[in-house]
Input
Amino acid sequence: MDRYRQTKIAGILGIVGNIFLLVIKGIIGLITNSQAMIADAANSAADIFASLMTFIGNKIASEPKDDSHNMGHGKAEYIFSMFISISMMAISLKLLYDSIMSLINGDTFEFSWFLVIVCIVTIIVKLALFLYTNKLSKNFENLLLEANKKDHRNDCIITTFTLISILLSLINIYWFDSVVGIGISIWIFYSGLQIFIESYNVLMDKSLNNEDKNKIIEVINKYPEIKKYNHLNTTPVGYRYLVSITIFVDGTLTTFESHSIADKLEKELNNLPFIYLAIIHVNPMEMEKDNI
Output
């Protein structure tokens, strides 16, 4: 439960921090007509939605399994991560259009030191949130945390370029402001697309990666009693996987002996952090011969 509690805290902090940034960015951006700052404010609005989805998705995912959901509610993390990605891509397209039109029209903005202060405050807040979520993501494999971590990191980079564009206006270089707006919108779209693909893969029951499959095989190979195996199938359950394997043992072993081997293997596999549940089916070698 600590995993879900920490994710809940990260979501709440993200909501509070992004509301604060949205307000100050929006006010200063509209007053000065800075396209980069307005884009940055819109990005903060998307961040609020992302943090809210993190909070709700985490709450649902933390619910234990029940009669209607035998494998728990873990996939809620990926459903709500997909919501986050879609909102990011939708906002990025609007920002891209506005920034391109601003560049074509040669729009300018009014320099203000408040723009600089807002950028510095944003970088400090987002850097603190990034460091916090980065620490959590290392301890807990959670796509919602990973999405938020990347988002906070991206914001630090985005706002740094916004700050550069603002400082360039001191020497009457205004086109860079629109270019930064275009760059921000493309970055948001790309980040959203990455999250969408990862969420989609899990929801479509993409199998376990080869690295973790090899870890399972290493465990199986530790048992000399297992003559061979097949049907190594994996299905995502939240952030972990349901694994089913058919093993073949000497047909002269008693039912108790063969199932004891399977039980030991199950227990060892269930200790792997990426496995939700391991299910082992036992076949005697004679059955394999009969099926040839």
